Every structure is written in structure tokens, then in C-alpha cells.
Amino acid sequence: MRKSRLTRSLLLSGVGLAMAVTGTLTTAGTAEARTEWRHMSHVYVDLADEGASDHQRDAYSAFVQSLRNAAAGYNTQETQLENVGIIQASLTAPDDRGNRHQVRIWINPSNLYVWGFSTESGTTYQFNDINGALGSRLAETTTPRPDVNTNVQTLNFGSNYNSLSGTAGRGREAMTISYNDIRASLVQLATVNNPNSGNERQNTARSLSLVVQMLSEAARFNDVEGTFRTAMGTWEFQYGLPHQQQELENSWDSLSEYYQRVSAGQNATAPFIPSIGTVNGLDQVRRYLRLALGSTNMANGNWNHDEL
Questions:
Q1: How confident is the model at residue 296 (pLDDT cuts 50, 70, 90)?
Q2: What are the C-alpha distances in Å from 210 to residues 61, 168, 172, 285?
Q3: CB–CB of 231/51 below 8 Å?
Q4: Residues 308, 114: Cα–Cα separation, whole Å
Q5: Which one, of 221, 212, 192, 205, lies nearest residue 291 by Cα?
């Protein structure tokens, strides 16, 4: 497939997000798989100028694994129980002129929820439904201290499914997923001037919607990671996240609770996932679930509130 220009991708996809990657991928912070109180774990990835490739695909998966490591507790198949620390995911992508732009995505390691982002100019924005949590968490982080302004601005839309899809003018079922959509979204978030008004508001919501899928949901679910691996490795274009994957995302808490109970040798009712069926036993759970929620009190996933 011929590479489209970034401006064309913005028009066609409304700033979808996909991410091709190259370069070294690493986590920073603590050596063990967790993010401690007042600590920041750093994961990053650079998109190559040449676009989609096998190397980009493999580098993306390495990046997603580093995100899982930063969020995991001592049991690396679950997120950490403590609601502390912060993950900084730095994503760099080239624009049409070859200029590189970096956006930083801020993630809560206890549940992989995206809290906000920082532009390349240093302005940080948080969703309006997290009660100022990002600003507070950044302010208390000391190791290493974030080099961003902790006077965080608040977006006039939230991370819940209704708010994000309403602002974007589309849901997961209609987002476009391709390498160019990823690149366009990263550049848009890195360079946005006013994400709270006009076209920039809608484009920002669309970019964040795709980033959430590419980072948080891919870290949770094998199949979602696979969708973005395809985008990173080929020039294929996909319209909409498959319905089966949407149902998995909405069932993260129930799958996690079942996994925890069965792992502990307790009786548990196997969850029924629409479009998939009953997921019975640890082997079937692991077929879909890559990282479980450490505390199911932290989740609220359904069609009205996505697991963001």
C-alpha cells in the first residue's frame, strides 16, 4: 500500500493513532517489575521514518512488554496492588517534513488507565474525570522528578467511553487503525495548541482514543496487541476495532477476578464474554488476557465506561 501523507491521514482518519517503532526500547526506574511510590517508570519508542516494517512490528511488541513490566506487581501477570507511582510513555514520530515530535502519555500503573499527556512544548493535560490525580501524582514524584510543568491543565472531556467517543465523534468500532493513523495521532498530540476547542478538540479525543488502545489495551490483551502489530508491520488499513476485542476490553475486570480466584484454588464462575463465549480455566484466560487487574475494585468496564 502506498504511504499517504500525514495531512491526508489527518483528513481521512480524523487523527487516528497507530504506532510504528524503531530504536531502543527500555524501561527506566526500578529494576523489578513494579513502579514504587514517588517513582516514575519510563518506557519509550521511536517511529522510524521508513514506516511499517517487521522491525517496527517487533519493536512495538517489545515496547508493550516494557509497559507491562512497569505496571506489574511482583506477580508479573497482574498490575500492582498499590495505587502509587506513575508511568511515562514517550512516543516520538516524524511529520511529513521529517521533523520529529515527542508526546508523553501518563499512565496509572495500578490499572493502566491513561490519565493525560504532555505536548512537546511542556504543557500537560489531564482528563476531567480523574479529580486532578495526574497533577498530584506528578507533584509527589521524586525519582526521577518529571521534567514537566506540574501545573496541569484539564481537558473539557473525560476518559470514560461516553465522553471520549462523544468528543471524538466516533467510538472504537469506527476508528481507523494503520501505521499512518498512529503517526498522525502522535504528531497531533505532541503539537496541539488548544485541545479544548474547535477541530483540535475532536482530533485530540480521536488521537487519545487510539493511543489508549495501542498502549493500555494492548498491554492487557493479546488480540489487541496483535491488531497493532499488524499495523506496525504492514501498510494494511483496518476500519474499527473488532467487536470481539471490544467485548474483551469491557470484561477486563471479570476476567481478572476469575483469573485471581482460579489461581488461588478457589471456586469461581467462568465468565461469559459476548462474541467469544464462556472462558473456562487458566489456559483459556491466558489465551486472551496478558495482564490482569491486580485489584478489581479499580475497574469499571462496560459499554458506557471503557477501560481507559
A1: low
A2: 16, 11, 8, 25
A3: no
A4: 6
A5: 221
pLDDT digits (tens, 9 = 90+) for 50-61: 899 999 999 999
Q: How far is Cα of residue 18 from the mean position of the Cα atoms in its chain?
A: 11
Q: Are 178 and 236 in contact (CB under 8 A)?
A: yes
Closest of 58, 68, 111, 110 to residue 89, by C-alpha = 68
The mean per-residue pLDDT over the stretch 294-308 comes to 53
Q: Write down the pLDDT at residue 250.
A: 94
What Å distances lie between residue 186 and 10, 146, 195, 268, CA to CA? 11, 20, 14, 41
The answer, yes or no, to whether the previous bond of 144 is cis (omega within 30 of 0) is: yes
pLDDT-derived band at 74 (thresholds 50, 70, 90) equals low
216-226 pLDDT per residue, tens = 999 999 999 99
Per-residue pLDDT tens over the stretch 1-40: 434 434 333 333 333 333 333 333 332 223 346 798 899 9
Q: Which CATH architecture has domain 7-239?
A: 3-Layer(aba) Sandwich (3.40)
CATH 3.40.420.10-classified regions of the chain: 7-239
Q: What whole-number percentage of the chain has pLDDT above 90? A: 73
